Amino acid sequence: xxxxxxxxxxxxxxxxxxxxxxxxxxxxxxxxxxxxxxxxxxxxxxxxxxxxxxxxxxxxxxxxxxxxxxxxxxxxxxxxxxxxxxxxxxxxxxxxxxxxxxxxxxxxxxxxxxxxxxxxxxxxxxxxxxxxxxxxxxxxxxxxxxxxxxxxxxxxxxxxxxxxxxxxxxxxxxxxxxxxxxxxxxxxxxxxxxxxxxxxxxxxxxxxxxxxxxxxxxxxxxxxxxxxxxxxxxxxxxxxxx
Length: 242
Ligand SMILES: [Zn+2]
Hints:
Elements: H1 2-55, E1 61-67, H2 75-84, E2 90-93, H3 95-100, H4 102-110, E3 114-117, H5 130-148, E4 154-155, H6 164-170, E5 173-174, H7 189-199, E6 205-209, H8 213-228, E7 232-233, H9 236-241
Parallel strand pairs: 1-2, 1-6, 1-7, 2-3, 4-5
Bound molecules: zinc ion (ZN).
């Protein structure tokens, strides 16, 4: 019995040694295979990146901006339409309108739109003293940031006029526009849509107002047409930063 047990032991150890040896050989060959595979994969990825960069074009980015809201009658419908289309826009709010419509401010923020400052009383900054101008901006920032918890970093000066020294003093960046269909002068939706879709090019900033039903209708039709043309709507910070 002892002899057999001893033979068994020897066989057992031989088997173990063989198995360990086999595992180690297999292990090395798997490692080698993996190493080679990773190298090959890296080469393929490099080639794919090169093809991506040279052949596949990024969609042209543009930004929709809305001034003078939020508006109790129109802004909600606009937000429904933008959400349905997966579009984020930028809204430059008048401080007192924001104060009157906190739920809309919250909704703008929660749905991923960028909120900017449009002064508290919609004033011409250049016709105000520095102190008054600063108060108009700070008061609006206070109302909005109390709802969103964030400092309002961008601003659109009413009437498109701005004092450069305020920018340095106030940590706020003015954002103008490049396509203006003068939507506030007409209720003709077709006119607004046609002007915007024929003029808009890559990196353009479109100016509309979310306090008119015709502008809301126009905005949603503009999105439908320009999305089909391959444009991507982004918030202005994405245009400015990139
Ligand atoms: Zn305005």
